[in-house]
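Key result, reporting period 2: structure in, sequence out.
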C-alpha cells in the first residue's frame, strides 16, 4: 500500500477505537491536516473496503474497520510502543508488593494485579507445574483404613487425597513406604510420572504391592492433576464497565474462560492478538484477546491475556502486557548467581 493509504487506514482505526462510530472522509481530512482532499479519501476508503479492511455499517458514507482491517493495523501499521517510565515504575511497585508461597500463587496474584492496572479482565494460564519435582510425600492416618496422602512439589504446590485401604497399615509398612518414596519418587519430575514409570517402580513394592499400590496410584493421580494447565480469570467486574458488551455477553465471557485457552495457545512468543470471531467455540464475536507468554528459564510457563471489546486501546494495552510478562519471566527465572549455586550444590552431592 502507498503511505497515504496507510495513513488513512490508521486514522480511521484510531478514531473508531476512540468513539466506536463509523468514520467519514471529512473527519479524516481534518486529522490529516487537510493535506488530502475528502474526494481522494473517499476513493481510498472505497478501495480499502474492496480489500476487506473497511466496511459500511449503515447507509452513511462513514466506514469502520473489519476484523481483518484491525489485524492489518496492529501487525503492519501500528508503530512499536514504549511503555512510559511512570507506568514501568508503577508496575515495578506492584511487583514489589506481590507475595506468594509458590510460583503458581505468584502467577495468580500477578494476574489480579494486571487486571487492576489495565482495568480489563485478565485470563492467566499457568503451566509452571511442569517444572516441578516431587519434594515430599506423606501418609497421614485419619481413621480405620483411612489415610490422607499429601504431595508437595518443589514449586510449593500441595495436593492431598483421602485413600481408603483394604487393611490398616502397620508401622513397618508405613516406614517401608517412606523409604520407597525417598528412593523412587523424591526428585522425580511430574512429567515423568506416566503409567509406564508407575508400573516400573511398583515392582519395587515387592510383598507390599497389594497393600501399598493404592497409595502409589494416588501419587500418580495427584501428579496428573498438578500437570493440568491452570486457568484463572481476574477483573471480571471491569467487564461491567464496558458499554460494548451486553449483560449476556459478559456472562458468556466469564463462563467461557476454559474455551479461551484455545485462543491463547498461539502466544508462544511475542504478542498474539485474536478476536472472538477467530474461534468456532468462543461465543462472543465482538471481543478481542491480547496475549503474551512468560517463561521460567528457557521454557514457556504460561501466558497473560487481556480480554475486552474489539475497540481496545491496542497502543496502550500491548506495551503494558509486554512489560508485565517480562517482569513475571524475570521473577520466575533464577538469576545467574542462583544457577551457579545450584550447580555447585549438585556437584557437591555427586562427590558425597
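The corresponding designed sequence is given below.
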Amino acid at each position: 500500500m502507498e503511505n497515504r493509504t496507510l495513513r488513512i487506514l490508521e486514522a480511521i482505526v484510531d478514531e473508531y477505537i476512540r468513539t466506536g462510530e463509523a468514520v467519514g472522509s471529512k473527519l479524516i481530512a481534518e486529522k490529516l491536516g487537510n493535506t488530502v482532499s475528502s474526494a481522494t479519501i473517499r476513493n481510498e476508503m472505497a478501495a480499502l473496503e474492496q480489500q476487506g479492511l473497511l466496511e459500511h455499517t449503515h447507509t452513511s458514507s462513514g466506514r469502520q474497520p473489519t476484523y481483518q482491517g484491525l489485524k492489518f493495523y496492529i501487525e503492519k501499521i501500528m508503530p512499536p510502543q514504549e511503555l512510559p517510565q511512570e507506568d514501568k515504575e508503577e508496575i515495578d511497585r506492584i511487583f514489589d508488593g506481590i507475595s506468594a508461597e509458590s510460583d503458581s500463587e505468584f502467577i495468580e496474584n500477578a494476574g489480579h494485579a494486571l487486571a487492576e492496572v489495565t482495568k480489563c479482565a485478565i485470563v492467566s494460564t499457568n503451566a509452571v507445574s511442569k517444572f516441578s519435582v516431587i519434594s515430599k510425600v506423606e501418609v497421614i492416618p485419619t481413621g480405620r483404613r483411612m489415610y490422607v496422602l499429601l504431595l508437595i512439589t518443589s514449586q510449593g504446590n500441595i495436593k492431598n487425597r483421602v485413600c481408603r485401604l483394604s487393611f490398616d497399615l502397620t508401622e513397618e509398612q508405613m516406614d517401608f513406604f517412606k523409604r520407597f518414596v525417598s528412593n523412587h519418587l523424591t526428585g522425580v519430575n511430574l512429567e515423568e510420572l506416566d503409567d509406564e514409570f508407575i508400573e516400573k517402580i511398583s515392582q519395587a513394592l515387592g510383598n507390599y504391592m497389594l497393600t501399598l499400590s493404592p497409595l502409589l496410584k494416588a501419587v500418580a493421580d495427584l501428579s496428573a492433576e498438578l500437570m493440568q494447565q491452570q486457568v484463572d480469570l481476574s477483573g471480571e467486574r471491569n467487564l461491567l464497565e464496558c458499554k460494548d458488551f451486553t449483560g449476556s455477553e459478559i456472562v458468556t465471557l466469564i463462563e467461557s474462560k476454559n474455551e479461551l485457552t484455545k485462543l491463547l495457545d498461539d502466544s508462544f512468543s511475542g504478542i498474539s492478538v485474536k478476536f472472538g470471531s477467530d474461534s468456532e467455540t468462543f461465543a462472543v464475536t465482538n471481543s478481542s484477546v491480547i496475549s503474551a507468554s512468560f517463561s521460567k528459564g528457557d521454557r514457556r510457563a504460561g501466558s497473560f491475556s487481556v480480554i475486552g471489546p474489539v475497540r481496545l486501546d491496542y497502543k496502550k494495552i500491548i506495551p503494558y502486557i509486554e512489560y508485565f510478562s517480562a517482569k513475571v519471566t524475570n521473577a520466575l527465572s533464577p538469576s545467574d548467581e542462583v544457577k551457579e549455586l545450584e550447580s555447585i550444590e549438585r556437584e557437591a552431592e555427586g562427590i558425597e
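The CA atoms of residues 77 and 126 lie 32 Å apart. Residues 209-227 form the longest helix (19 residues). This case is discussed further under Risks and Mitigation.
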